[in-house]
Amino acid sequence: MGLNLQSLAPPGELREPPNFACPGIFPSCHGLPQICENASPNKFRLGLAVAGGPSDPDNLVLDLTNALKAGAVQILVMALFKQGAYTDDAGLVAERAVPLEDTSSTLLELRLSGDHRSVNVYKPVMDLRTSDPQSTYSLRTGIGNGAQASLPRLYCIEGGHDRIIVDMSLLLQAGFFVVNTNHLGYTKTVIDAKEFPTNLDIAVEYGPVPLLRVGYTLVLLPQAPMQPRQNDDRLLYFDTQYRDKGSHHKQASQKLSEAVDSKVSMIWRYNLPRLPDQTIRFHVDPSVPARWRKYFKRGIEAWNAAFTLIERPSAVRAVLPGDKDWPADYDMSDARFSAITWDVSEETLSMGIAKVDPRSGEILKCDVVMGDSWVKTYLEELEVEWVNFTNFLQKTPAVSLLMREELVEPGKTAPHRILQLLQQGSAERKSRSFGFAAAYMQKRLESSELEALLGSGLQEIVAHEVGHCLGLRHNFKGSMGISEECLKDIHCTARHGTSASVMDYVPVNLPKPGEALRHIWSPTVGEYDKLAIRYGYTHLQTSESDPGLLQILEDVRRRAEQFQTCYDDDLYLGEDPSCLDYDLSADPLGYWEQQLDLYADVQRHLLEMSVAPRESYDNYGRAVHSVVGGFLPDIGINAVYYLGGINNTYLHKYADQTRRSRQPMPAETQRRALAIILRILRPKTEGLLPPDSNLPYLVDGSQLQGAIESLDLTDLVRRLRQLLLEEVLRSERLLQVHKQENLLAPGDADAFTVSELLSTLVYGVMSAGLDKITSEDEQDLQRIFVQILSSKLPEHVQFLPADVMTQLRYFRSFVYEMADGALNRLSTTAKGAQWSTCAMFNKTCTCTGLVRLRLSNLTSAGLWSGTDKRCLPLDFTVNTSASDLDAEDAWCECLSLTKADMDLREAQRLHVESLKNMLTESGGAHRGEGKD
């Protein structure tokens, strides 16, 4: 097709298109040049063309002349949703910034055809490759050449006949061969299109309803791939994996079978020698508010502490607007610039988006998006000079963990789903923790210090996200590398941070009242991070197979075994409790114990902290809900995962290796975890609920929506108990306890057994007893426990070992016998009443209730007394002969019994009967398990 242009512009000059209609595919195209009129060094050139015939449509075209000078080029294609889409019928159909590629291979090869009449598009297979010359032919013929399409060339009529131009609409319709556009819609409209020296960005809306906006990025890959570096599970990086087909030279660390069709994992990293000044630059986008840019800079350049150890003290640099080297042509979409932006979308948390060469793992560009939904919660009120607890609470999610129905349905939610839901709420937990810190510290900090506090929080988040951009993955055991003593010492944390890895998620490091100020947030990267950077970025002017480099990397790998590590998949498996996010210090249980003490202190002052003068009391309700419905279940669930927990370690076999790759959590640690759970099960007793004097102000709702109601604390506590007890008694948890119990070898330390778990739980929950009148709160706890215990029927848990089932049956029968015996004793037991001396021998006992005779170690049965009764032995029945009695040594005791006591005693009897019925209906005791 010929492109008919009326005039030619001078070379290099970009012209506005003439006054003709934009292409139908790109109705807002003004600003793009006519492709045949302009010259540019850019590898990809976007432009407009008027078609050669009057009936032909206008075209949006792509000039590949510069890119295809060598006849072929490889490009990387990325696609994601540029904005979210929601409909009332279908809900959220597109989530902003979510990757959209439906293939693991996003590398395309563009090759000029042999007759030069078309551009052929290939998608090479990246999951299968070969470095074995003898396997090249079989692999090529076995998987094909990956041909996708042939794009006809378009020609300029007046000059420029050597230009290589193709129609963009064909590529857009095909989703650049990485997105199945059939699921997006049959109409397409280009919203924006930009070209840069080595990449191209296009935003396209597919429709008609709903309109789905997709962003495509095409990046030119380097002509020579970077030398890849092998991944290692002790310092795990993000990676590109493939299978290297054929037979290869066996490495010392490989089995013979691993040298055939080897699995290769290449880490993601920047290629420092290829970068200007060998420096990784992150451009702080102008969208970042000026007052926070210095904290962004500190977070970015904190990584130089790691690069200093490989003699690159300035390897990472933050470039801010206004800096002398701020690029005049900066655009965050330009592949030359890694950028950190500030997004006002409520859907965005914080994330890194990397563009990686799949041939080698080289990071070409990485952008960090800081979202309002991650930080706005604790930033937007700074302009009024302080952060107060109310502002934090107004941003607290209305639905707490306990209000998720799926979490409180007994036996309905898998353990990994609990962790998944906790992870989905990470942003909520992080911001809630941050707001809590700001409120707590407000009592001692000036407004300027509070701003610095919040800025340091941003600094840590930026450092975390930049770590991802450098290739590092999460390490959720980083907190285990810092002692509690170090956390209290500002000099220690200044050097080591609050975690051995800034790639961990850790809560704020709050001091107790009266303690010296400390680093609330980690001020630096951790020791693990420094080692990981040394592994990924140590570079010698030789090949990756250089013996000197290999020895350096091996030394780093051995040192890495000194650190505890775990990654995202470890977290979701839920077996290793030290692999949890939002724990702190090498003693997480001690941290949670301190947190419970802190929340008890907060509850005493929460009304004053949460409701300012002239503000609504529903702020108080949300504050209480946040503690009871958010913080307490978080701690409780984390403690549950210590029961039966196994510490798994990434160790490799060496002659001097003495450690074990898996080790049960110490029995004492598991006992402490169970004690925390039992403590949370009685939040009223532990001071974790509002004081009674504050209950008249406990309302919840939204004054803006005109809805307010009394906060149902009883329901919140019931849900909390149901959640924790169900998780403790879940079959998978009992199986896990049994599993770790059997890992211990003879002679090892004592084990935490299923029997100890169940006996401690039974005693802890039932310790108030059944044969004396207890509070409604205790009855509720006992009822929930017995209900869940009785639901553990053999037919429901067939996969449990026989000895575990035996333990369940035993303790279920034990509680049954406990209830049965209590019913016999309740006739002489009253609430809180104690037998007290009312008269000595032959004196008058004034008592409304029961009177009994005491003589030495003998006790008579109780007799009813209306008001007064003489203390005479002959009036009582004592199981002994009269000669054994020395009447003058006798005395009488009274058990006061009012009508209210009798009503409560009847309620207690009904309660115990209901427990007994639950256990009977469960099919246990009534079949002879608990009674003769």
TrEMBL record:
Listed GO MF terms: metallopeptidase activity
InterPro entries per record: EcxA_zinc-bd, MetalloPept_cat_dom_sf, Zn_MMP-like_bac
Any matching Pfam family: DUF4953
Location of the EcxA zinc-binding domain: 449-767
Recorded superkingdom: Eukaryota
Residue stretches spanning the membrane: none
Full protein name: EcxA zinc-binding domain-containing protein
Organism of provenance: Symbiodinium pilosum
Taxon lineage: Eukaryota, Sar, Alveolata, Dinophyceae, Suessiales
